[in-house]
Amino acid sequence: MGASRGPRLSGLQKQVLSLYRGFLRAARCKSAADRRQIESIVSAEFRRNSNQVDRKNFLYIEYLLRRGKKQLEQLQSPNTESLSQTKQS
Amino acid sequence: MLRSSFLRRGYNKVAGIFGRAEAKKQDFPVLEGHPAAQESAEVALESRVTVQDNVKKVMKEFRIYRWNPDRPDSKPFLQSYHVDLSECGPMVLDALQKIKAETDSSLSYRRSCREGICGSCAMNIGGTNTVACLKPIDGDTSKPTIITPLPHMFVIKDLVVDLTNFYQQYKSIEPWLKTNMVPKDGREYRQSPADRKKLDGLYECILCACCTTSCPSYWWNPEEYLGPAALLHAYRWICDSRDELTEERLQALTEDERKLYRCRAIKNCTATCPKGLDPADAIHKMKTKHMLSQPMEMVEIM
């Protein structure tokens, strides 16, 4: 999915990019250390999904978009400070 | 006491040599010194064995919708489970609990009260939307029972669906008492029994989402149309005699033609409600109220 970031992006790609932008904007409102933490987690997740998930698997991409929107709403609330991740063995 | 137990053990050893019949009495070490209890415990064991031999297994097949978001390439499918109904509670929720406990613990579903009051376990069972804790298992073992999530809803995993839009629509009708005046003696807002009776059939809604997800009009316009559950609650507040902002509530519902008037009287909601409520009737009453509150010329045109 990273290779096709040329002039013509499909609707789904635009949605994914706008979600990513939303996360980065939300990160700007938090403190500097938290901002770096959020940015690293979010960019790692998006990059991992872009490599692992098939371009044509619309069902799963839409599921990830919906989940991401909910997580973004939670992050945008002023009560949330930062994100953290735990590894699943 | 000591002497009798010593004698008993001696007798048992001797009897054990001559025959195995007395060996059973050693099955219950906890009942040492209580011969009557040991005998009745033995009788209970024997009868249990007889019952187990006679009880027949009643195997019922359940085909349950599965989808795992952690496996991106998998597509949804119906998985078959066979449950012995003779060892299972009567309701579909009991069967799901048994499957999750014994066979497949990755099966995901919502549940809470197991008595039909919380509305968590709403799902589509055999084509109809109901709550699983109030739906008895169909005893016909020749046909499988098909369990799928609520229709036309986004699936989070297996039978768990995303109900945030549903809850936001309920929130949007402002389901609380709105008054301008304080009651006369400053205590409760009073209501006559006749007025309270008007709320029967409206307040019992458990927000299970069965009716809303059975409405074809809601399937095609989930963002705009509020759905039978939210409209039932809207009517519950409109016809509450203690609530004073009735006209404002009605006006908020009918300002555009999409929140209330998308209802086409399909009546799937009334047919599927697990609590036996009548959302279609409430919606019809609200439409009538709105029509009658308009000036006479407009009513004649209608």
From TrEMBL, chain A:
<feature type="domain" description="Complex 1 LYR protein">
    <location>
        <begin position="14"/>
        <end position="74"/>
    </location>
</feature>
<comment type="similarity">
    <text>Belongs to the complex I LYR family. SDHAF1 subfamily.</text>
</comment>
<dbReference type="Pfam" id="PF05347">
    <property type="entry name" value="Complex1_LYR"/>
</dbReference>
<keyword id="KW-0143">Chaperone</keyword>
<dbReference type="InterPro" id="IPR045295">
    <property type="entry name" value="Complex1_LYR_SDHAF1_LYRM8"/>
</dbReference>
<dbReference type="GO" id="GO:0034553">
    <property type="term" value="P:mitochondrial respiratory chain complex II assembly"/>
</dbReference>
<protein>
    <recommendedName>
        <fullName>Complex 1 LYR protein domain-containing protein</fullName>
    </recommendedName>
</protein>
<dbReference type="InterPro" id="IPR008011">
    <property type="entry name" value="Complex1_LYR_dom"/>
</dbReference>
<dbReference type="GO" id="GO:0005759">
    <property type="term" value="C:mitochondrial matrix"/>
</dbReference>
<keyword id="KW-0496">Mitochondrion</keyword>
UniProtKB/TrEMBL annotation, chain B:
<dbReference type="InterPro" id="IPR004489">
    <property type="entry name" value="Succ_DH/fum_Rdtase_Fe-S"/>
</dbReference>
<keyword id="KW-0411">Iron-sulfur</keyword>
<dbReference type="InterPro" id="IPR017900">
    <property type="entry name" value="4Fe4S_Fe_S_CS"/>
</dbReference>
<dbReference type="GO" id="GO:0008177">
    <property type="term" value="F:succinate dehydrogenase (quinone) activity"/>
</dbReference>
<dbReference type="Pfam" id="PF13085">
    <property type="entry name" value="Fer2_3"/>
</dbReference>
<comment type="subunit">
    <text>Component of complex II composed of eight subunits in plants: four classical SDH subunits SDH1, SDH2, SDH3 and SDH4 (a flavoprotein (FP), an iron-sulfur protein (IP), and a cytochrome b composed of a large and a small subunit.), as well as four subunits unknown in mitochondria from bacteria and heterotrophic eukaryotes.</text>
</comment>
<keyword id="KW-0816">Tricarboxylic acid cycle</keyword>
<keyword id="KW-0813">Transport</keyword>
<dbReference type="GO" id="GO:0046872">
    <property type="term" value="F:metal ion binding"/>
</dbReference>
<keyword id="KW-0004">4Fe-4S</keyword>
<dbReference type="Pfam" id="PF13534">
    <property type="entry name" value="Fer4_17"/>
</dbReference>
<keyword id="KW-0001">2Fe-2S</keyword>
<keyword id="KW-0496">Mitochondrion</keyword>
<dbReference type="InterPro" id="IPR001041">
    <property type="entry name" value="2Fe-2S_ferredoxin-type"/>
</dbReference>
<dbReference type="InterPro" id="IPR012675">
    <property type="entry name" value="Beta-grasp_dom_sf"/>
</dbReference>
<dbReference type="InterPro" id="IPR006058">
    <property type="entry name" value="2Fe2S_fd_BS"/>
</dbReference>
<dbReference type="InterPro" id="IPR050573">
    <property type="entry name" value="SDH/FRD_Iron-Sulfur"/>
</dbReference>
<keyword id="KW-0003">3Fe-4S</keyword>
<keyword id="KW-0479">Metal-binding</keyword>
<feature type="domain" description="2Fe-2S ferredoxin-type">
    <location>
        <begin position="62"/>
        <end position="153"/>
    </location>
</feature>
<dbReference type="InterPro" id="IPR036010">
    <property type="entry name" value="2Fe-2S_ferredoxin-like_sf"/>
</dbReference>
<comment type="function">
    <text>Iron-sulfur protein (IP) subunit of succinate dehydrogenase (SDH) that is involved in complex II of the mitochondrial electron transport chain and is responsible for transferring electrons from succinate to ubiquinone (coenzyme Q).</text>
</comment>
